Each structure stands twice: as structure tokens, then as C-alpha cells.
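Sequence, please.
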């Protein structure tokens, strides 16, 4: 199709008005034609060709050069191999394993799930205001012009771009459009054929993106379309999935901004784009902060990744700055980094420091700021070099992390199986003693259950207290922050000036301060809750193994209490405070949270960073609401006319008024309530799972001790040995590429 706008700007290099003059139409006609080039008819084309001295062929064939695809070394190959070796090993052994035993069957299933989960490619999300040039940058990285781009707000759904080799066999098309259920479309489930069928809206060549995935498309009004997955063959996709997102700030659909910002939750790395001309103005910083907050921190001194290595803040279309003057572009980046650093409250940097042990200084942050344009290689080199470095490094980190996790799991399984084996041997030798202990255990059960019920009720009561406490402390913090005095002081201490930009930044700073407070209040209370949960689990453990410890001949039933409790979290949507508990479990917790859909690299942060890293995993707590409120307040500031006189006080009052207009305190209070509701639900699910798992173990043991013949027992011994051998011979390659 004839791209009039680009032709006018890039070839003719004249304004719309000049062009209108040249071809003898009104400027609004030109503007309309540029917006909808498909409406340009043949006679108009002839007219343009005549007026500009171009042939029709030249016009229609005009296409801007797309830069060469980003070349990367395919270091993911090794991970892919490792995954296949492991999956093949499972597959080849399945036939010979005693999988009629539910426990053994679960081990194999868990391993399979883990191999699938741990070797997921990192996801790179490209976000920013509409028209920043996100889709253009992606096309350039891919080296093919597959994402629709235009000068008006374009992309309307999240587009997940994956490598063609990652396409499941049952998918035949290049692109598929999906509808989102209540919780959105879960791209991690796309390899499940049934999920694919259930959520698929349409499929075909990538060009269907223009129909379903753009605001100009014929099917834009179909609100059901929520995501697309596209399979392409570009080098960069060997190392990562790329996500093209709708732009912020279009005001087209209420949820667009929040949707786009939520998808950064799943991202391992984020490219945030803002046009160099007007860099990080208005609500831009607000969205950038939301991305920062959701980004996992996995940098640390051992893996030698730099602070915020997975964040790229881009001043796009840098060629527009005085013909791409590098010095001027750099000073725009300097000022942007400075402003951004100032707008992020210290709590957020402190949280990141707690995970990584790095100091987040403005100098470090500045290193994450880059320029970009498809027009001059010199203005994108630095970005491309750093992106390449990150992408070529992540596979090693993911591999090392997977390796650690697998070893930890295998060790756990092996230990449990060894205990089981000892039990069988003892059944042969001293069945009477075992029968006796089992009888006692059965007798103790009603009392144990009763005690645990009581303990559970106590936990619930504690959670209710936490709810009240956190509500009260938040209310206090909120009224301190959203008060004229505090705001006036803030204006003074941060040196904000009486101008629109500064007012927006002030409003933005206040909103992140509030969110940081919510996060911290909930984090501290959740840490208290961790102690209570661990106590609950310890009591349970003590009760079921009472005889094993008190009786010299007592025996232990192999049972991992913590893991059984955690398994109750698997099927539920939000953990509340239990996310913090999970994050104290190291690799196990990382794995549980990753299986839930948080980014692969969060697992690395979680396995080393403890509860501080869970803040990322739960950054959505309050996130969307804070974002929505902040954006309204900031926009409210925009139309606020600054009177003369005590402007600081006036501004402060205006902000306080905006917050009350937004009913902010109430909304935040609901967020806190929901957090504790989720916590209660999660705790009950986990406690139920623990009880259920234990009952299963106990009955299984009872059956063996009471009814197994000596032959049965001998067969069971050989089965458990078979399982141990199966785990011992797992072909886990030696791996010490990078410490994490
Ligand atoms: N010459 C030039 N044009 C660019 C560059 N980046 C973006 N553009 C143009 O800017 C317009 C907007 O770019 P898009 O890539 O569609 O922007 P986007 O961020 O994806 O916008 P939404 O999808 O609406 O969120 C398009 O017409 C692009 O051709 C660039 O580096 N150089
Ligand atoms: Mg786009």
C-alpha cells in the first residue's frame, strides 16, 4: 500500500501544508489520506505522481528500509538440548517405572512440568506511550516488517512473537488471535492443544494482525480479542520471546493502559520507549515506574549483571533531535535519567538493593538510558549492543538456575524414597512394632486433627488482626502523605518549580510513595505471618512424627510437610501474603511462583533474594489501582491553572482534593482487604492440601504394613529401588557456567 506519510516526510521532506499546496488540495484532505492511505484512489495517485515527478511504481513501491535483523549467537541451543535430553529420559523410562503408585507417578509428572517450566525463554516486553515507535523497533530487531505501524495509535492487543521452531505441531498458522478469559490470555498454556482451541478467535498469516490487532482494523470493536501469538524466523527469537504492546495513554478503552502495564508482570526484560522529542513527559514517568516496579531483579555480584540490566529506557525517533545530533540526544537522556531517578521513591530502590546488594545510583540508572531510531545506525548501536549482551547472557543464568532447582528436587525425592525403602525393610523384619506404632498414630489422629483445626483458627484470627493493623497504618501513612503540609515540604525539598511538568512529576512522586508504603506495610506484616505459618507447619510435622521421635523403635513416614503445604498453592490465582512465604523457600518457592506465571527470571531473584523479591511477584498488588489514580490525578494537574500568591499551598490543596475526588483512600483500603482475603484463602487451601496429602500417605502406609505379604513387600522394595535408580541416573549435565 502507498505510505503517503512516510513518502512525504522521508522522500519529499516537506510539511503537510506544503504538500497540500503542491498537489492542490486542502491540508485536512492530506491529513485524512495519510491516516487512511487505503482510501487514496487511482486518480489521486496519478495526481501525486504528476506533481512530484515520481512514477506510479515508485509511489506504490515506496517502502522504508528496515534495518538488518539484530544478529545474536544462538546460545539458547544448549538449554534446548538439555531440556530435550531430560524430557526424552522421562519418556524412555516411563514404561519401565512402577507408575501405578500414585506417589511415583506424581514425581514423574512434577519433573516433566519442571523441565517445561524452567526452560522457558525469557520474555522481552516493549512498552510505552502510543506512537513511541514500539512496533517499528520490533520490526527492526526482527528484520522484517511484520508488526503493523502507523502514525496514529495502532497496536490494540498484546502480540507475543516467538520463534518458528517453538511452534507446537498442532498450530499451522503464522499468527493466531486469542480471546482473553477473565484472567487474560495465558501465553504459557499455548502448548496445550485444548487451551489453544478454547481461546482461539482467528488465525492466518501475520497480516491478520491488521484486522484484529490494530485500532484501524475491521475487528477492532471485537473486545474479545486480547492477544495474538505470532511465529517467525528471526535470529533474536532464538534467545527470547518479544511482546509488542498497545501504547499507553490513548484513552480509547479504559482498560488498555492497565492491560499493557500488567503484561510487564510476565516480562523478564522491559524496553520502555518514549519519543526523544518530549522525552518522559506527563504520565510517561508514571508508566515507566510501574514497569520498573514489576521488573524482577536478578542482578547480583556473582552473576556480574549490572543493576537494572533488564531495563532499557529508550528515547525513540532520536533522528528528530536536530537531525540526530548525538550531543543533544545525550543531554536529553541525561536529563531523563536524572528526572526518573528523582521520581522513584527511595523505598523502591531500597527494595531492589535488598535483593541484589547493589546501590541504585543515578549514574547506574543513566547507563540504562539509550537512544534509538531506525534511521541512523549510530543512534541505536549502544542499545543493540547492550540488548545483545543481555540476551546472550540470560540463557546461562536460566540454565544454572534450572540446574540448581533440579538438583534440589532430586535430592528431596531421593531422601524420601530412601526413607520409604527403610520402612519396607523394617516391615519384613519387625512388622509387629510397626503395626503397634501405626495403631497409636491412628489413635492420635482425631486429637491431632482437632489441634490443627484449633491452630488454623488461630492463624485466621491473626490474619484478621494483621488486616486491621495494616489498614490502620496505611490510613495513617496516607493521611500524612496526602496532606498540604507534606506536599508543600516536598515541593521545597525536591525543588519543584511552578510549571506543568514539575507539577506532573510531583503528583507522580506522591503516587509511587503511596504505593511503596502499601507494599512495605504488607511486606512487613507478611514477614510476621511467615513465622506463624512456619510454626503451623512445624506443629504439624511434630504431631505426625511424634512416635518417630519419642520411641526408640519409632519409624518415620516419608513426608515433606513444607512441600505438601506449598502444593496447595498450585491451583489458586493469587497468594496474598503467602507469596512472601513462598519466596522464603528458595528454589522451591521460586519454582512455585514461576509455575504461576511470574517471569522465569523472578525465580532467580526469589531463590537468592527472599521476601524482598516477592515484592516484584506481587507488584500488582495495588499496582493497577495506583496507576489509574495517579494518571487521573496527573491529568487533573494538567488543567489546573496556577494562580499567583502561595502557589505551593494551592498545588498541595489541589492534589489533596484530587485524591479525595478519586476516592483513593477507599480504593487502597479495598486493595489491602483483598490482599488479606487472598491470604486467608491461600492459607486454607494450603492447609487443606497438607492435611489431604498426609492422609494419603498415612493410609498408604497402613495398607502396606497391615496387608502386604512378604512378597508384596519385596516387590515394593525393588520398585522403590527402581525409582531411586531412575533419579540417580537422570542425565543432568555438569553445569557451572555462571553462579546465580
Ligand atoms: N523515520 C522513523 N520513523 C519512525 C521511527 N520509529 C517510529 N516511526 C514512525 O512513527 C510512527 C509510530 O510508530 P509505531 O511503531 O507504530 O509506534 P507504536 O509505539 O507501536 O504505536 P502504538 O502501536 O500506537 O502504541 C510510525 O509511522 C513509524 O513509521 C524511527 O525510528 N524512524
Ligand atoms: Mg504498535
Amino acid at each position: 500500500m502507498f505510505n503517503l506519510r512516510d513518502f512525504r516526510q522521508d522522500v519529499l521532506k516537506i510539511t503537510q501544508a506544503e504538500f497540500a499546496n503542491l498537489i492542490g488540495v486542502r491540508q485536512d484532505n492530506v491529513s485524512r489520506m495519510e491516516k487512511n492511505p487505503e482510501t487514496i484512489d487511482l486518480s489521486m495517485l496519478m495526481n501525486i505522481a504528476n506533481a512530484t515527478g515520481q512514477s506510479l511504481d515508485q509511489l506504490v513501491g515506496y517502502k522504508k528500509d528496515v534495518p538488518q535483523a539484530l544478529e545474536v549467537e544462538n546460545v539458547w541451543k544448549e538449554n534446548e538440548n538439555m531440556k530435550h535430553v531430560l524430557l526424552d529420559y522421562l519418556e524412555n523410562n516411563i514404561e519401565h517405572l512402577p507408575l501405578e503408585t500414585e506417589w511415583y507417578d506424581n514425581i514423574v509428572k512434577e519433573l516433566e512440568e519442571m523441565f517445561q517450566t524452567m526452560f522457558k525463554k525469557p520474555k522481552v516486553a516493549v512498552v510505552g506511550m502510543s506512537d513511541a515507535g514500539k512496533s517499528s523497533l520490533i520490526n527492526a530487531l526482527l528484520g522484517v516488517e511484520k508488526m503493523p505501524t502507523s502514525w496514529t495509535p495502532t497496536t490494540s492487543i498484546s502480540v507475543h512473537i516467538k520463534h518458528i521452531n517453538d511452534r507446537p505441531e498442532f498450530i499451522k498458522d503464522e499468527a493466531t488471535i486469542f480471546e482473553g478469559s477473565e484472567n487474560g490470555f495465558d501465553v504459557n498454556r499455548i502448548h496445550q492443544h485444548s487451551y489453544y482451541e478454547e481461546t482461539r478467535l482467528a488465525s492466518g498469516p501475520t497480516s491478520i494482525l491488521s484486522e484484529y490487532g490494530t485500532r484501524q482494523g475491521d475487528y477492532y470493536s471485537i473486545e474479545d480479542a486480547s492477544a495474538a501469538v505470532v511465529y517467525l524466523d528471526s535470529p533474536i527469537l532464538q534467545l527470547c520471546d518479544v511482546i509488542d504492546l498497545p501504547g499507553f495513554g490513548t484513552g480509547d478503552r479504559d482498560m488498555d493502559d492497565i492491560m499493557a502495564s500488567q503484561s510487564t508482570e510476565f516480562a523478564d526484560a522491559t524496553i520502555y520507549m518514549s519519543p526523544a522529542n518530549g522525552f518522559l513527559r506527563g504520565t510517561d514517568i508514571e508508566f515507566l515506574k510501574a514497569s520498573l516496579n514489576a521488573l524482577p531483579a536478578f542482578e547480583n555480584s556473582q552473576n556480574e549483571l549490572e543493576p537494572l540490566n533488564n531495563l532499557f529506557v529508550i528515547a525513540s525517533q532520536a533522528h528528530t533531535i536536530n537531525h540526530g545530533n548525538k550531543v543533544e540526544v545525550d543531554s536529553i537522556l541525561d536529563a531523563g535519567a536524572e528526572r526518573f531517578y528523582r521520581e522513584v521513591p527511595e523505598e523502591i530502590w531500597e527494595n531492589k538493593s535488598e535483593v541484589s546488594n547493589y546501590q541504585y545510583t543515578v549514574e547506574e540508572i543513566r547507563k540504562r538510558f539509550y537512544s534509538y531510531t531506525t534511521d541512523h545506525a549510530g543512534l541505536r548501536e549502544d542499545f543493540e549492543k547492550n540488548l545483545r549482551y543481555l540476551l546472550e547472557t540470560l540463557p546461562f543464568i536460566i540454565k544454572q538456575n534450572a540446574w540448581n532447582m533440579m538438583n534440589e528436587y532430586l535430592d528431596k525425592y531421593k531422601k524420601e524414597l530412601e526413607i520409604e525403602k527403610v520402612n519396607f525393610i523394617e516391615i519384613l523384619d519387625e512388622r509387629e512394632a510397626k503395626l503397634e506404632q501405626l495403631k497409636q498414630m491412628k489413635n492420635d489422629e482425631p486429637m491431632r486433627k482437632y489441634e490443627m483445626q484449633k491452630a488454623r483458627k488461630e492463624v485466621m484470627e491473626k490474619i484478621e488482626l494483621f488486616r486491621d493493623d495494616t489498614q490502620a497504618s496505611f490510613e495513617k501513612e496516607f493521611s500524612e502523605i496526602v496532606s498540604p503540609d507534606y506536599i508543600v515540604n516536598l515541593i521545597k525539598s525536591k525543588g519543584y518549580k511552578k510549571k506543568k511538568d514539575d507539577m506532573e512529576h510531583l503528583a507522580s512522586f506522591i503516587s509511587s510513595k503511596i504505593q511503596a508504603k502499601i507494599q512495605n506495610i504488607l511486606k512487613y506484616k507478611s514477614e510476621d505471618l511467615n513465622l506463624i505459618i512456619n510454626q503451623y507447619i512445624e506443629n504439624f510435622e511434630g504431631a505426625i512424627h511424634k512416635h518417630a521421635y519419642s520411641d526408640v523403635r519409632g519409624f518415620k513416614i516419608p513426608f515433606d510437610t513444607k512441600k505438601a503445604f506449598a502444593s496447595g498453592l498450585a491451583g489458586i490465582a493469587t497468594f496474598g501474603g503467602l507469596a512472601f512465604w513462598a519466596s522464603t523457600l528458595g528454589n522451591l518457592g521460586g519454582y512455585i511462583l514461576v509455575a504461576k506465571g511470574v517471569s522465569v527470571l523472578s525465580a532467580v531473584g526469589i531463590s537468592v533474594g527472599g521476601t524482598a523479591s516477592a515484592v516484584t511477584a506481587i507488584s500488582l498488588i495495588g499496582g493497577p489501582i495506583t496507576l489509574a489514580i495517579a494518571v487521573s490525578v496527573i491529568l487533573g494537574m494538567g488543567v489546573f491553572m496556577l494562580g499567583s500568591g502561595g502557589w505551593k499551598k494551592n498545588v498541595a490543596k489541589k492534589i489533596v482534593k484530587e485524591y479525595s475526588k478519586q476516592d483513593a483512600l477507599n480504593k487502597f483500603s479495598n486493595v489491602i482487604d483483598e490482599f488479606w482475603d487472598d491470604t486467608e484463602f491461600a492459607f486454607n487451601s494450603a492447609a487443606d492440601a497438607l492435611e489431604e496429602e498426609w492422609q494419603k500417605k498415612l493410609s498408604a502406609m497402613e495398607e502396606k504394613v497391615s496387608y502386604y505379604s512378604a512378597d508384596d513387600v519385596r516387590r515394593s522394595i525393588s520398585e522403590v529401588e527402581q525409582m531411586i535408580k531412575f533419579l540417580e541416573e537422570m542425565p543432568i549435565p555438569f553445569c557451572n557456567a555462571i553462579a546465580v
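Residues 158 and 245 are 5 Å apart (CA to CA).
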